[in-house]
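Incident review: delayed structure delivery

Summary: a single-chain prediction request sat in the queue longer than the usual turnaround. Root cause was a stuck worker, restarted by the on-call engineer. No data loss occurred. The affected request and its eventual output are reproduced below so the record is complete for anyone auditing the incident later.

Affected input:
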Amino acid sequence: MAVYTDVSDEEMEDFVALYAIGEVVSFKGIAEGVSNSNFLLQTDTGTYILTLYEERRTNPADLPFFLDLMEHLAARGLACPTPLHARDGAVIGQLCGKPAALVSFLQGLSPRRITPDHCAALGEAMARMHVAGADFPRTRPNDLSQDGWHALFKATKGRADKVAPGLADKIKSALAELKKTWPSDLPRGLIHADLFPDNVFFRGDKATGTERVSGIIDFYFACTDFLAYDVAICLNAWCFEADGAFNATKARQMLAGYRRVRDLSPAELAALPVLAQGAALRFLLTRLFDWLDTPPGAFVKRKDPLEYLRKLRFHQQVGGPGGYGIL
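Output delivered after worker restart:
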């Protein structure tokens, strides 16, 4: 989440009046993430999240897919934001000349210090999401898979070495290798494609003393792709320590949690190192693009692209699923 567009009190009040949710009490921008402008909205009936979709970040034509997917998953018991319908039944409105939507607010906290318990709960929740999405009738290509990586590289390669000497050549080499090794016949379905810790909320379960997932948010990269690619994204996002070391215990717990709900085939397990390389390269490139192209004054935290260069190098050395704690 982030804020690129400033919204006045009057503009917010006029927009909220289109919904049967009472009057605006307060609202404030949310700085986390990088994609769209987001606000925490309080009315006299409750708390909501308002997303204003930035055209340079989100294709407006994709919005019905994202919002219908959230409604579909919520109807099947997944804890995720539910889009609100305006008085005229619409879920997509206009604010400051841009598409906008309101969704329900979820209770819980993103983990500041990730534990193996978090990873186990995440694995289960991710698998439940994959199962719940199996009968979703829409599909959407992953525009941040191989074609998207090449487009991002084209947009950044002339400036990449300003971030780190030799970075452009390292990315070029990784792209060429993944073009040769990327799988083609793994199980496919609806994936989140951005399941980072700040997109997953937890609450403590007093009965068991463990953490449980209370919500999954930010479905604006969701698409149809290999289910195991979502797993690979989470290996990158959840299983490395602050010093860059890979934590095999966290990976083993995450994969065990996932497999309690949906088992991974031998082919999916064997492909994890390549998929994890692709996921690391994807976030290296998107972070590099954001690092170089974020507008001045945007209320957004840029993230270090070189973190994912280091993760890419790790996955390039992994010979099989045993490198992720699977015996």
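Verification: The mean pLDDT is 93.
Action items: add queue-age alerting; document worker restart procedure.
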